[in-house]
Each structure stands twice: as C-alpha cells, then as structure tokens.
C-alpha cells in the first residue's frame, strides 16, 4: 500500500538581494549569514522527516538552501537530490536585479492603479501581473503567463506524480516566493496572492490521484523547533 505523497515546499533562505530590497527573479545572490543560520534551524526542525527525495530549482540560492537542510538532516547523505529548472522563480526580464520599488512602482501604473497597495486591495490576477511585467520589460526576456503556468505546474506535478507512482512518501522541494504563491493559486483560485511568504517557510501539499490539496502555507514552526533543539 502506498504512503501519502506529501510535498514540503520551502522558500529559499534570505539572500543579499532580499535583504537590500532588490528583485531577484532569474538573477541570483547567495544567502546572507543570517539567512544561512535560519536555514540551519529549519534543517534541524526537519531532520526527523523521512524524505524519499529532495529537489530544488537550479538557482544558486535554492541549491544552497537545499544543501544546508540536507546537511542538518539525520539521513541527508542518503536522500537523492536533483535540480529542476521548471521550479525557478518568475523571470522579470530587465527588472531583474533592480530595486523592488522599480518593479512595484511600474506594474501598478501599467494596470491603472495608483500604487502597490491600491493594486493589492483590488486583488489582481497572476495573469494581470505577468502581462504587466512583460509590458514593463524593455529587454523582452520576461515570460508570458501561459509559459510560466506550464513550466511551474508541470515541474511540481511531475515531481509529485513520479513519487506517487514510486510508492509515495515525503519530498523536500526548495523553490521561490512568487513561484510557490502562483502554484497555490493554480490549486485554489480563490486564494489571495501569497506575496509575503517568509524565507525558510514551509508550504505543505498532499498529492493523490492527480490532485493537490493544500495542507499548510507559510509554516515557520520547523524553524522554531530547530532553534529550540
């Protein structure tokens, strides 16, 4: 009999760009010393979870986070680990690497809102957001909505489907704030944007017969458990 298939989806640790308020997307910076410390606590809090396998995006900050968590795990050296480019963050094109104020300054204006708060109060869709980023991108690198949707859904669903076919069990996945938030919206379209997912937070999904169920979102208790251990 198969075990339940459970994805523990982690937002990567806090990076240099996160700390100084720059948009990362496909650009990358390493975890700060404080960011590493929090992920060590997270790893300690997850060390007893029997993971069958582990994945991260191919961004350096996600790989660094995954390595720290596995380093802290009781059987980390025995857990198969791979990267998957499909679970990367969104690409913000020419806005990658700029200050957050540039992205969240121009996008509301494109969508005819006064400012970021006005935009979020009106609960824009992820398609609206993606279309506005494409419109703002002067380099023509930003991904259109349908491409983001296809890669993010297929990335996570393929991981879950393979694990279910192989008997189920727990999977650790390190991904990115907007990507995780977007995945949640594909599972439950009634959810508001989860822009505020914390670095090191765990979002847990259960997968059965081709369907995801959301168990927990933005869970920080594993970090606190590790801090106390």
TrEMBL record:
Pfam families documented for this protein? His_Phos_1
Which residues does the record give as substrate binding sites?
11-18, 61
Task: Provide the Gene Ontology terms for cellular component.
Answer: cytoplasm
Molecular-function annotations in GO: phosphatase activity
Site (Transition state stabilizer) found at 176
User: Which superkingdom heads the taxonomic lineage of this protein's source?
Assistant: Bacteria
Q: Which InterPro entries match?
A: His_Pase_superF_clade-1, His_PPase_superfam, PGM_Phosphatase
Task: Tell me the active site.
Answer: 12 (tele-phosphohistidine intermediate), 89 (proton donor/acceptor)
User: What PANTHER family does the record tag this protein with?
Assistant: BROAD-SPECIFICITY PHOSPHATASE YOR283W-RELATED, PHOSPHOGLYCERATE MUTASE 2 PARALOG
Q: What is the protein's given name?
A: Phosphoglycerate mutase
